[in-house]
Amino acid sequence: MTQHLDDDAELYALGYTERERSDEIEAHLATCVACCRRVAAAEEAAASLSAALPPMPAAKPRAASWQRNWWPSLATAAAVVLGTTTALEGFIAHGASERVARTDTALTALAAAHFGHTTLTAQPGLVAKAIYSRDGSWCYVVASGAPRGAHVVFRTATGTEDLGALDDGTPATLFAQQPGRAEEVDIVTAGTVIAHGKPVY
Amino acid sequence: MSFDEAAFNDAYTAHAGRLRAVAFDVLHNREAAEDAVHSALMRVWSSSSYRAERGALLPFLIACVRREALDTLRGANRRQLREVKAVADDPVSIDETAAIDPIEARRVRLALESLPESQRDVINRAYFGHRTLLEVSRETDVPLGTVKSRLAAGLRRLHTVLSPGAAPS
């Protein structure tokens, strides 16, 4: 698509374009700075509208959900990966008064990171995800409901590697450095695969 | 350098409330809203689609989350969401006291009031009233294409009015 976006710039910013059209628009935005700026302006206005929304109501008291726990874990993983970057050093060094700036710095660092993720197909009661760098330099597995001591196993064309046991946290996690690129990633306990997934690099 | 997990989590927390509010406004379901936020951000990160020309990060993320939530509403899971689907609200108005950012909400309300009635009405019905553009078209007896044009023009004008340095109305 080479034509500029016209009104679709604003409709896209507000989410009123269908997924197929959105995909076309995103492909166009990758090559058109003028339309990027127009969409950015529209998204800025749309973000202002969102400030007038009420906050999401608090959850009823219950066990911590997967979603609530998963995020800080991902932040941890990403920070481990990005922890030596100048941007993050700057982010961490700043005081509370620069909260907004450091927030954007951190999230921008995350946004620029090249990693993928896959939800593992798991037995009932277990929810697990693998987050991995596309170059195979690290992998982070997060599992909610995994039995204590379960291991993460990488399977490649040449063999199998046990990356170690998930920790006892909630959710349980395992961060592995230089695991390579797996064709399959499993969570295993007592010789039985209880979760399985295929990373896409 | 040691990793300051608390600081990093703080960074997420600073935006998470806003992103969840956006998703929840569309889906009216906590779990679906959290899933939408998660999916949107993973989509952003796995595709590395953010770059400087897209402007500030937060508006970009908010737009991604809203798109994800609306896609969810339009998609295969709609039946699952039927009981909690966002329903069209009656007279639409901004409740500044309940807003996630009351000061910005007041600025938005004043900015909206400066828009031509036709543009303000479409924004109110579609954004704050949770109507689809087709529903807006039917309610107002205005062609769908015109509804889209008015919405787009209204958003452009809103951006101008809200931009720093814009003359107060």
Written description of the protein model:
The complex is a heterodimer of chains A (201) and B (169). With 201 residues, chain A is α+β, with helices and mostly antiparallel strands. Chain A contains 6 helices and 8 strands. Chain A has helices spanning 8-13, 19-29, 33-50, 66-82, 86-93, 99-111; strands spanning 115-122, 127-133, 138-144, 151-156, 159-165, 172-177, 184-189, 192-197. Chain A has an 8-stranded antiparallel sheet, with helices on one face. Chain B has 169 residues and is mostly helical. Helix content of chain B is 67%, strand content 0%. Chain B contains 8 helices and no strands. In chain B, helix 1 crosses helix 2. Residues 1-9 of chain B have low confidence and may be disordered.
Number of H/I helices of chain B: 8
* Biggest chain-to-chain interface with counts: A-B, 71 and 82 residues
Number of domains in the coordinates of chain B? Answer: 2
Top CATH class of the largest domain in chain B:
Mainly Alpha
CATH fold label of the largest domain in chain B: Rna Polymerase Sigma Factor, Chain: A
Radius of gyration of chain A, CA atoms, in whole angstroms:
20 Å
Assembly state (oligomeric) = heterodimer
Helix content of chain B: 55-70%
Strand order of the largest sheet of chain A: 5-4-7-8-1-2-3-6
Mean pLDDT over the residues of chain A: 75
Whole-number mean pLDDT of chain B:
80
Q: Can you tell me the CATH superfamily of the largest domain in chain B? A: RNA polymerase sigma factor, region 2, helix turn helix motif
Counted by DSSP, the helix tally of chain A is 6
Number of strands of chain A: 8
Number of strands of chain B: 0
Name the helicity range of chain A. 25-40%
